[in-house]
Design brief:
The protein is an alpha/beta fold. The chain has eleven helices and 17 strands.
């Protein structure tokens, strides 16, 4: 990023430092009181997007947990440090010679952090291997995950919900977010079970019995048993009143997901494997026989922010140290992000544990978020970041909102006892406002109607 942008960021920070705090608008205060959310449990900022004194500054120097609003720092830093056209590549090596249609040796797939290696793109990768003339592999398919070094993690550790897709962990060779989609379709007296993708060696029941009664919580009555992940049991029933439903699951055996998915896809594209799928490393000094590029970073950032995808955000975060340090680590990426913050925005950076906001250790102030959003607004990267934020009432995590439709682009964040937003509000005559509103409290969700009142108030400001 050019020197002029850094100067602009520092000038914005100076404007903030000299600004006197102003109180909450009365209508926002009233909504907070009605919801039982104390004023000292929220931080609020409304300021001109192009810089200048804030219109509202309530507890803006109080550090709070931002939940997924933390993704703003990760995504803007990535756009600035890597560039909006940055792509990840997944490389394929032949560790052996090809004779006829047979690879006499191993096929090596090296991941480099692609956040969006979904099944359609894995199919394309393996079809390209087939197009190189390989029909059978006498050895193994070797998965090289060495680009990232991340600690072992328990997917249940954060909130006791290991099957929730938001708890999937990062991986240098992340395949399909380590998730499966299980669809239940009522047919006669049973519900047909369809699972995508097909994981090699995993068996699912073909049907489950239908039950009477209302739909409600339809997952618990299935009594899903993943004690033996290779043989899933569904001894319960599915409510007929639900119609067709899909259950998205983070695979309970996450470290084995890529191996099972790749083995299954290799068979699907018509390949034969003599050995097994296992972890390993690419042969030293070898050149890849093909590379599959990811979508560009700007497109990935849209997915991260629109849908608050945690594992994609962590992939992006780890890529910062992969590119700048040679290996992707959480500690290395924290250092890269902190250095970028000091250089571009000035002052001490916020703390982020993993770049996604899925953490109880995240810490940032409304002032810091305001500085980041103002800096982004005067940056050439503004269109990429602003367009990645959910449009109020239209898409992403804000698609179900029914007030002030289209008046704001806001990143949302939500955890137990944490809720908030940060982004841009559209005012009259093309005016744009930075808005930050976050609550840390047992009644944090009560900030949502206050956010609507604040958006409406800000959108009227000249």
């Amino acid at each position: 990023m050019p020197h002029c942008l850094r100067l602009a960021c520092l000038l914005l920070a100076g404007t903030f430092l000299g600004a006197a705090a102003q109180g909450l608008p009365p209508e926002v205060d009233a909504v907070l009181a009605e919801g039982g959310l104390p004023r000292d449990a929220v931080v609020v900022l409304v300021a001109p997007a192009e810089g200048g004194a804030p219109r509202v500054a309530h507890r803006i120097d109080t550090a709070v947990n931002p939940a997924s609003v933390a993704k703003l720092a990760t995504t803007f830093a990535a756009l600035d440090l890597l560039g909006p056209t940055y792509t990840w590549t997944t490389q394929v090596y032949f560790d052996g010679s090809v004779r006829g249609s047979v690879l006499q040796g191993n096929l090596v797939i090296k991941g480099q952090g692609d956040p969006k290696l979904v099944m359609e793109r894995l199919w394309l990768l393996l079809k390209r291997v087939r197009a190189l003339g390989v029909h059978r592999i006498t050895g193994d398919i070797v998965l090289d995950r060495s680009a990232f070094t991340v600690p072992a993690r328990d997917p249940a550790a954060f909130d006791g919900e290991p099957l929730r897709p938001y708890n999937a962990g990062p991986d240098a060779l992340l395949v399909n977010f380590k998730t499966v989609a299980v669809t239940f379709t009522p047919e006669g007296r049973q519900a047909r079970v369809r699972v995508e993708p097909a994981l090699a060696g995993v068996r699912w029941p073909a049907h489950v019995p239908l039950a009477a009664g209302e739909c409600g919580d339809w997952i618990t009555p299935l009594r899903a048993d993943f004690t033996q992940p290779a043989r899933v049991r569904l001894p319960g029933s599915f409510p007929a009143a639900c119609g067709e439903r899909t259950w998205n699951i983070a695979w309970p055996e996450p470290d084995a997901y890529a191996a099972r998915a790749i083995a299954g896809m290799w068979e699907e594209v018509g390949g034969h494997l003599g050995g097994q799928v296992r972890d390993g490393v690419a042969p030293a000094g070898a050149q890849p026989v093909l590379e599959l590029a990811s979508p560009p970073l700007a497109e990935v950032v849209r997915d991260v922010n629109k849908f608050s995808n945690n594992v994609m955000a962590q992939q992006l975060f780890l890529t910062l140290s992969l590119v700048h340090r040679g290996t992707g680590t959480f500690e290395g990426s924290r250092e890269v992000l902190a250095g970028w913050w000091r250089e571009r925005l000035g002052g001490e950076p916020p703390f982020t544990e993993n770049g996604s906001g899925l953490s109880r250790m995240e810490s940032i102030t409304a002032r810091q978020l305001g500085q980041l959003l103002q800096a982004a607004w005067v940056s050439p990267l503004m269109p990429d970041l602003a367009a990645s934020l959910p449009a109020l009432g239209l898409d992403g995590t804000l698609r179900r909102q029914r007030q002030n439709i289209g008046l704001a682009h806001l990143k949302t964040g939500s955890l137990n006892e944490v809720a908030g937003v940060a982004g841009y509000v559209h005012g009259p005559q093309g005016r744009r406002w930075v808005l930050v509103a976050i609550a840390n409290h047992r009644r944090a969700s009560a900030i949502r109607p206050a956010v609507q009142a604040l958006v409406e108030w800000a959108s009227r400001q000249p």
